[in-house]
Structure formats: structure tokens, C-alpha cells
Specification:
This protein is α/β, with parallel strands linked by helices and 432 residues long. β2 (73-75), α4 and β3 form a beta-alpha-beta unit. 43% of the residues are buried. The strands form four sheets. It has an eight-stranded parallel sheet. Strands 9-10-11-16-13-14 form a six-stranded antiparallel sheet. It has a three-stranded mixed sheet with strand order 12-15-19, with no helix packed on it. The protein has 13 helices and 19 strands. The mean pLDDT is 95. Helix content is 28%, strand content 22%. The chain has two domains: 13-306, Aldolase class I (TIM Barrel), CATH 3.20.20.70; 315-421, Immunoglobulin-like. It is elongated, with a radius of gyration of 24 Å. It binds alpha-D-galactopyranose. Alpha-D-galactopyranose (GLA) is lined by residues 32, 77-78, 126-128, 156, 188, 217. Residues 311-392 form the Alpha galactosidase A C-terminal domain. Keywords: Disulfide bond, Glycoprotein, Glycosidase, Hydrolase, Lipid metabolism, Lysosome, Signal. It comes from Sphaeramia orbicularis (orbiculate cardinalfish).
Length: 432
């Protein structure tokens, strides 16, 4: 009987992707949000989807300090291919815009310690109307990508139905695995199923995909960032357990360095994406990015929070009527990250709380403000104030608690009792 159950269970249990990749959220650059489907290379040679664009970004990643911080993927999105497959039925890059071909581009990346990602779609066509990879083309196209030495594949879902998706997404995982080349696999499947159970099976996704798009496309606006963040935190009870090393929820690209976000909003996107253990794919123009945006994207402490080895996705833990929200992500070594976020539109808000109100246990904590680098110490019971800008954040790295020092009281040599040394006073600590 037991054997029968076991055999049945293994027959039913889906195939598992086994590429060993993306134990921490993948980082890099992705063309879509910033460059879309610009194929007008005659009039817009700098910005059109062509090998030159990816070469330019690869040069910036490797020469401007990005690669060393972990930004290694250079990902092509839609509109890269020719409208026709070649004579053997294989996908091929548009010959005018990618005269060297994809394999050469992959080599260019590899020579610089970078990786190349590519895009396809489970339907008859990609969302942009280019040839798709429907069920009968899955094995062929997976092999083509492997032959080109591609390192990551995003499988979109336009022009496919639920039945095809149910077959196609696991089949692609199997086909990628069968090539023997480790290829990171990004599935848009849940975004096409509404992102939530019972339609979405996050256990299965974690077994077949390294990351998945749960929700709609990001646009270059604060509204869009807020809408996405709200959806992810409203559904955190479903999404948090789905994430872990090798399997990540993907709230879509970072738009820091583009046109839509203020500096405070840029710091907010970076902070919230780090709390969410989100993949960090920038979609911006690294050739012209401002030093302010670059500093946010290259913030080492935030990146190390995002890349924490435990891979636990963080949560929203407080939602105040005042419009202040607090987010917490547990980190390795008993540390944690805290984000204080303001939805307000008036002026910096002075939010007063204590670590114990945020569920921290008794102890003394070292705090580092990750955007100002200021360090301080706080007891769990000490009242403090953070000043949070409108649509901005304050983000802290909170180290493991140190024991509070006990003070002993004696009278006539006899112990009377003990109490925690209390350096508190009535005035809250202020962080500005
Ligand atoms: C969909 C995806 C986007 C992008 C476009 C390309 O909308 O969600 O991320 O890949 O298709 O056409």
C-alpha cells in the first residue's frame, strides 16, 4: 500500500527544474520597460532593439561598477526576432538589427563576466506580434537557446489559453533541463492566471520556474510602482511562502533612472523591492543615468539585503491610518531589514514607535540607516522617531539583538534584585 502511494505520488508530482540557479534573486538589466519595441533603427539608432543596444548596456555594466555588485544579466525582451523562422524551423534574430546573431551576443556577454537572457512566448505570437513558441516548438526553441549559449529565458503568455499554459510551462522547464545548459527560467504564467490560488499553484511554480511574474507590467510612473507594491503586500500571505532560494516572485523591473520617479520614490522602489526579495532587473539607460539614480541602484547595503542568503521574502507589518507603513524582512545572522514608508503627500512625517511595538524581542540593537549610513543603537523599549518624506522611505538594517546589561542591587552585601540598565529617558530618539 505504502509503495503504491509512493509510486502514485511520484507519477503525479510534476517534473522539477534542476538548474541550481538563482539561489539569490537574479540581478541585471532588461530592455522592455525603457526601450519597448522600438525597431526603428534608421531614425533612432541609439534606442532601437538591436545588438548595439545590448552591447552598450553590457559595456556600461562591466565598466561602471554594476557587474561587481551582482548586476550580471543583460536581457533581451520582445521584438528581437525575425518575423519568420529559418528554413529548419528555428527562431532567428532580425538580421538587420542583430547582424552578428544571438550566439555572438552571448559570447560578448560571457567574455565580460555577464550573462545573456532572451524572451519568448507560449502562444502563437509574442505580445508584440513576433513568432511564438507554442507547444510543438518548445523542444526545438529550448535547444536553439542552449545552442546560442543563452543563460536565461523569459516565457511570456500572450495568445495562449489556460490549457496550453498548463502543458507548456512545465514542458519548457523539462526542455530547458534536457539541454544540459543551466538556463534561468522566468515564467509569466501566474500573471495570466490572475496571480492567486486556486488558479495559481505556487508549489508547482517553485518546482518548475526560477522566477515568475505574478502581476501586471510596470510602467514609468509612481502610480504603477505603488499599485504593484500594494498588490504584492496585500497578497503577502500567499506570496511570501512561495519565495525562497531558486524561486522568486517577480514584481517586474526597477524603473529607477527613468522619467517617472522622484529621488524619494526611487529610494522607495529600491527599498520595497529589497524587502520583497525581488529580482533586480533595471530597465533604464545606463549610458545617461544620473548619479543620484546610480547611487540608489548601487547601494551595497540594500543589495546585500536583497541578496540575503536565507531568501525569506519580507512583509508589511504595520499599516497606520496616518499613511505610514512598516515592512520587515528577516535576514541571516538574526538580523532584519525595516522599511518605514509614507503614502502621504504633505510633508515629512515624524513617525514615533519602538522596536518592541514592531515585534522585536528584548535587547539592544545596532541600527544602520542604509541611505544615510548613520549608525546608532536602540533598545527594544526605546521610543524613537523617524522622519519619512512624502512617497519616500527610511530603511534600516537591524543587527541581531545584544543582551541588555543587568544591573544588580545590593544592600549590606546581600543581593536585593536586579534590573536592566535603563538609559531611556522620556524624550524619544529622533532620526532625521
Ligand atoms: C508582456 C510582458 C512584458 C513584456 C511585453 C513584451 O506585456 O508582461 O513584460 O515582455 O509583453 O511585448
Amino acid at each position: 500500500m505504502r509503495l503504491a502511494v509512493f509510486v502514485l505520488a511520484s507519477a503525479l508530482s510534476a517534473f522539477a527544474l534542476d538548474n541550481g540557479l538563482m539561489k539569490t534573486p537574479p540581478m541585471g538589466w532588461l530592455a522592455w520597460e525603457r526601450f519597448r519595441c522600438d525597431i526603428d533603427c534608421e531614425n533612432d539608432p541609439k534606442n532601437c532593439i538591436s545588438e548595439n543596444l545590448f552591447i552598450d548596456m553590457a559595456d556600461r555594466l562591466s565598466e561602471d561598477g554594476w557587474r561587481e555588485l551582482g548586476y550580471v544579466y543583460v536581457n533581451i525582451d520582445d521584438c528581437w526576432s525575425s518575423m519568420k523562422r529559418d528554413k529548419d524551423g528555428r527562431l532567428q534574430a532580425d538580421p538587420k538589427r542583430f547582424p552578428g546573431g544571438i550566439h555572438k551576443l552571448a559570447r560578448y556577454m560571457h567574455d565580460r563576466g555577464l550573462k545573456l537572457g532572451i524572451y519568448g512566448d507560449m502562444g502563437t505570437h509574442t505580445c508584440g506580434g513576433y513568432p511564438g513558441t507554442p507547444l510543438d516548438k518548445i523542444e526545438l526553441d529550448a535547444q536553439t537557446f542552449a545552442d546560442w549559449e543563452v543563460d536565461m529565458f523569459k516565457y511570456d503568455g500572450c495568445y495562449s489559453n489556460a490549457t496550453e499554459q498548463e502543458k507548456g510551462y512545465p514542458l519548457m522547464a523539462k526542455a530547458l533541463n534536457a539541454t544540459g545548459r543551466p538556463i534561468g527560467y522566468s515564467c509569466s504564467w501566474p500573471a495570466y492566471q490572475g496571480g492567486l490560488p486556486p488558479k495559481v499553484n505556487y508549489t508547482q511554480l517553485g518546482e518548475i520556474c526560477n522566477l515568475w511574474r505574478n502581476y501586471g507590467d510596470i510602467q514609468d510612473s509612481w502610480d504603477s510602482v505603488l499599485n504593484i507594491a500594494d498588490w504584492f503586500f496585500e497578497n503577502q500571505d500567499v506570496l511570501v511562502p512561495a519565495a525562497g532560494p531558486g524561486r522568486w516572485n517577480d514584481p517586474d523591473m526597477l524603473i529607477i533612472g527613468d522619467f517617472g520617479l522622484s529621488m524619494d520614490q526611487s529610494r522607495a522602489q529600491m527599498a520595497l523591492w529589497a524587502i520583497m526579495a525581488a529580482p533586480l532587473f533595471m530597465s533604464n539607460d545606463l549610458r545617461t543615468i544620473s548619479s543620484g539614480a546610480r547611487a540608489i541602484l548601487q547601494n551595497k547595503m540594500i543589495i546585500s539585503i536583497n541578496q540575503d542568503a536565507l531568501g525569506i521574502q519580507g512583509r508589511r507589518i504595520v499599516k497606520e491610518k496616518s499613511g505610514i507603513e512598516v515592512f520587515l524582512r528577516p535576514l541571516s545572522n538574526n538580523a532584519s531589514a525595516l522599511v518605514f514608508f509614507s503614502r502621504r503627500h504633505d510633508m515629512p512625517y515624524r513617525y514615533q514607535t519602538t522596536l518592541s511595538k514592531l515585534n522585536y524581542t528584548t535587547g539592544r540593537y545596532k541600527i544602520i540607516d542604509v541611505y544615510t549610513d548613520k549608525a546608532t543603537e536602540l533598545k527594544d523599549s526605546t521610543s524613537f522617531v523617524v522622519s519619512v518624506n512624502p512617497t519616500g522611505v527610511v530603511m534600516w538594517y537591524v543587527s541581531a539583538p545584544a543582551d541588555l546589561s543587568l544591573h544588580y542591587f545590593y544592600r549590606g552585601g546581600k543581593p536585593l534584585g536586579s534590573a536592566y540598565h535603563d538609559d531611556d529617558n522620556a524624550v524619544p530618539r529622533v532620526f532625521l
